[in-house]
Amino acid sequence: MDSTPALAGFQRKHLRRLAHSYKPLVHVGEAGVSSRVLAALDEALSDHELVKVRLHEPEDKRTMARELAMRSRSALCGLIGHTVILYRPHPEEPRIDLPDRAG
Questions:
Q1: Which of 64, 70, 96 is nearest to 83 (CA)?
Q2: Distance between CA atoms of 6 and 51, rounded to whole angstroms?
């Protein structure tokens, strides 16, 4: 997939609800968004589609969340505290069914 998936607000809300019980799979430490973090995030998104990323004392968590989404070609679904929720559907076999309309 070459671009960031475009999601409606109700779809992001659905994904946040699904991710509620998930544990963070990727941790961003003091070094910030490094190539190792991006590789781990890419692997987690390929395996799970929907992941939580834990930020350790970021200077600007909103900017870091947007950077993670952009550099991983994923959709930013939410930022709760220091935890980012990202979604990127599998290119051949999506596992998460997104609602096509609110309701």
A1: 64
A2: 17
